[in-house]
Design a protein that fits this description.
two-stranded antiparallel sheet; 295 residues
Length: 295
């Protein structure tokens, strides 16, 4: 199994870190959050994924971005090879819900704010968080193109999209579109068509909530699940290899396409290290046959 994958012209570790659990409700304290990022970096992770909306209800937009910046600033090793990806176009409500805002003026302002919070010359990867049904998608993508042209953003991605929207984004953004971030996991495989399209176009496919069926999403509450018979194959393969079923799920995802780059969340250092180790877990053909069947 390769340790690295390409995201546009940037080589990154084959498993990234989704930092949402570190900055939304239920988040760990600052020391553990920073230690989790540092553990991921130590284990070879070089892609950190956040968003301006990753904050608790009633919190301030960009709390997650500022946490990532502090964690990188306090890291004892080199960070030149770390790519920070953030997203814009969503918000939080006071009761914990999520909003969508794809208006061009909002996206331009949000990206400029994210760039200031993250520091550096430009946002490494900026992702349109979700299509806004109230705004023509081409208008939202046009704002991202303007951000690319202005140098605010170096590379662009889209999230929560259909195959048609991927094609449209490619037409508007050209080869500066480098990634698609959709939900995909052992439990949720309805983005198979989008994954295959990304493979054919050479776009990185970043599964969010990649441990569904094995662990809960940060949005679902408790992070651990009892063994589910529907996903028993992941547990059996894990026992055979002496690793966690979460690590098997990530290694399985990496076999789905050479463009897959999972971004599992973590809220403790041990989880971040375990996920990163999936990049070197070799699954046998018989393992993959069982995992692909999901049982």
């Amino acid at each position: 199994m390769t340790r690295y994958r390409m995201l546009g012209d940037v080589r990154v570790g084959a498993v990234g870190l989704g930092t949402m659990p570190l900055s939304i409700e239920g988040r760990p304290d600052e020391a553990r959050a920073v230690a989790t990022v540092h553990a991921a970096l130590d284990a070879g992770v070089t892609l950190l994924d956040t968003a301006d909306s990753y904050h608790p209800p009633g919190g301030t937009p960009g709390e997650g971005e500022l946490l990532v910046r502090r964690a990188l600033a306090s890291y004892g090793g080199g960070t030149d090879g770390v790519l920070v990806a953030t997203k814009g176009g969503r918000g939080r409500t006071a009761d914990g819900g999520w909003t969508v805002d794809g208006r061009p003026e909002h996206l331009r302002r949000a990206a400029e704010d994210s760039a200031r919070r993250l520091g550096g010359d430009a946002i490494g990867l900026y992702q349109l968080h979700k299509p806004d049904p109230a705004v023509p998608y081409a208008e939202s993508l046009g704002a991202v193109r303007e951000l690319l042209d202005a140098g605010t953003v170096r590379l662009a991605g889209v999230s929560n999209v259909s195959t048609e929207q991927i094609v449209q984004a490619r037409e508007i953004l050209g080869d500066r579109l480098v990634s698609v971030q959709n939900r995909y996991s052992p439990a949720v495989r309805d983005s198979e068509a989008e994954l295959r399209l990304c493979a054919s176009l050479g776009l990185a496919f970043l599964p969010w909530s990649p441990l569904g069926g094995i662990s809960r999403s940060s949005l679902d509450g408790a992070s651990a699940l009892e063994e589910d018979p529907e996903f028993g194959a992941f547990h059996r393969v894990a026992r055979a290899h002496g690793v966690s079923p979460q690590q098997v799920a990530l290694a399985w995802l990496l076999t789905r396409s050479e463009t897959v780059l999972p971004i599992p969340g973590a809220s403790r250092p041990s989880s971040a290290r375990d996920s990163a180790n999936a990049a070197t877990l070799r699954l046998a053909p018989e393992d993959l046959t069982a995992l692909n069947a999901g049982r």
